[in-house]
Write a structure and sequence with these properties.
Radius of gyration: 19 Å
CATH topology of the largest domain: Rossmann fold
Strand order of the largest sheet: 10-9-8-11-12-14-13
Strand content: 25-35%
CATH superfamily of the largest domain: Vaccinia Virus protein VP39
Number of helices: 9
Number of domains: 2
CATH class of the largest domain: Alpha Beta
Amino acid sequence: MDYLELTCIPETGPHTSELLIAKLADIGFESFTEEPGLVCAYIPFPQYNDEVRLMLKDPELKNYIKSFSTSIIADQNWNATWESNYEAVHISENCMVRAPFHPKTITEGFDIVIEPKMSFGTAHHETTHLMMLFLLNTDVKGKHLLDMGCGTGVLAILASMKGASPVLAIDNDEWAFRNSLENVENNVPGKIEVLLGDSSLLKEKMFDMILANINRNILLQDLPEFTKALTINGLIFLSGFYEEDLPVINQKAQSCGLSFLSSMNKNKWTAACFMKTT
């Protein structure tokens, strides 16, 4: 199948590329690549219809795009192209995330096999990497754990491998939901419940530990709901935001009864750990 490539120069400003990608995903673009000052988005050419063209002219979307151009990418062996550009990730000496076509290079520990497809959470992104480091350094055995905005399910899978139980993974994107189901079955079959939905699914549920690697705006919106679903002295790990956003995240967390414990940074991205104290 031929694809339409949309090459965008985003407007300047914090999180503009992230917001632009979210807007393009809403109108049907399936995958994205980012480079400094550039965002490329892809959609099957048959789906690049008059409705999508009209949406690209929407004034709200234009707030995020300085300019853009389009080109057609001819059909090719997409799996072979993907494999040639995709590398396994070593989080630590005893934890790796790899695709099925990568060889296993650790003799013990946590070998996680992910079919990433279009979902977020291959451990290549800094925020996923940071959240996995937090998990590796936290005792999760026997903890009732939630992975909110699970993407590929990689965080829930690592938590389950470390002994967290029961584990619930939730994402509001159907592609991510189905991808998580597949990855759970391939790594820890029967040990993780995966649901399609949002924070409204948390009513009357309680967790000892919550992982939320989403984005700044959703975190600020849903932190009260996350906190309600967290037991006293429970831990919540947050990521998906930049270092500069930590103060506003911390302020919101404190207003919800959460106390800041620690944070880690990588390439300006941040992950932070909080405890519910009240």
